[in-house]
What does this fold into?
Amino acid sequence: MTEPATGDIPAKAAALSAVLQAAGWTVTGTAPESTVLADPGGTLRLDIDTANGRLEFDCPARERPGGFRSAWGAQAPLLTAAVITAVSEANDAPEAFVETEDDDDQFRSRLAEAGWREVSVHYWTSPDLERDLILDIGDGEHEEPELPWRARRDGGAREVHLSEATPYGVICAFALSDDHPDPAAPEPLGLALAGQGWTRSGIAHPARRYDPDARVWNSPDGQVMLATHGIRDGRTLISLYAPRTPGDAQDPLWQINGGPVPVQAALAMASAALRPATGGGHDAGFTAAGWALAPEHALSVAVAGLKSWIGPPVDEDLTGFWRAFLFPMPTPELSTWTVKGAHAGLECSLLATASTPAHVITAAAAATGTTP
Amino acid sequence: MTGAASTAQVYHPAIDRVLTSCLGSADAVARVRCAAADGTADTLTGLLHDAALRARERDIRLTRMIRHAISDLQAAETELAEGRSAEHLLTGRHDQLLVAANRHHDALAHLETLARATIAPAANSNSAS
It folds into this structure.
């Protein structure tokens, strides 16, 4: 089994819930380790076990004029929103509501058209043999499984169990849908930014020249931009900067790049960037945020202009701290801040221009200890 | 499936007809459905509701399996006509259909037994009065 590391599961489950809600699913119930969503059609219920990364689908029987869809249910590991959306759409498709019974020939044709081979009765395999579909009908003597359909992915590492009466179209959606993340789907940081009035920049943004997958966001007032460069386990590499002119990423007034940062830290930095710096420069800014000049600073006075600030601890043992070093260069334009710390045990490293406001730098540490 | 049973609002028309015949009226079937949906069903009614869903599952399996077998028989006919083996299309089909048919029969018999048991107390109370 190649299940994701346990620590990743709550973040992935939360991200899945956020993406589905952005796609029109509604929350119908919450518990400490569970979120229950209803699909946009209001018929399919999805219970996300956020602690264990398990999904439970539950659909009641429904009758329409001239058609009937049986009640069905499924249990699955975490799937992508793309697969779940395909399942929801198949569940509401006219084909799911059949006059008498659904069409076995059509079902087998769909699998055959996708290149799947019927190896034996009620057992199909995908062309790359990474997926298969089985109906386990038992031998008539022993107890048969309650959810006899099994749609397996990743060579059997991930397995969806489906009830007998699951519509054929829904079974196909579980078996055939690609579950690679949709590059256009909003991710949690993007959803949070959108919720605060930030808007996506056009795809012609210069940031996309060196990172085609970058997602660039404009602040509501157009004074700040934030580009996300990849997301992993709910943490993002970011570029946060103040363009000299709106939309320009070439020569910003200041910028801070790096990470990975959890959503809360990125949001804290983005929010801080919208606030003007209070007077007194960097010294006052760091001091106001509770940072202090590091003890070694006194020993480094031989380097003119070097600053070494120490911020909040990054662990419960108080053995590590957020740090910000200003490396002075002949001109302020060439001088840089190196900012290092950790969020919930995962190291974070940022590089900022000398002019980056202190309250933006210190905001990176604001979410220390939080989960993604 | 238990989870699906908790939210089912309607029964398949074929199952509905069986229940209506056994319980005596469509209203009686509706009462079973509603009690199961809103969680107020007594033990017997809950068992009847589960049996109705189970019977539907048995029904859909048998129907799907028969259609599957028909397709394979047609394919086998083609294979044999062209002088090829059709063993892979026919092997084991008899046993599978028999198992599915027996389970379908058992599920319907169970459903009818439960339905009669459900109306028996009412009939007894009526005769007592």
Summary: The first strand of chain A starts at residue 26 and ends at 31.
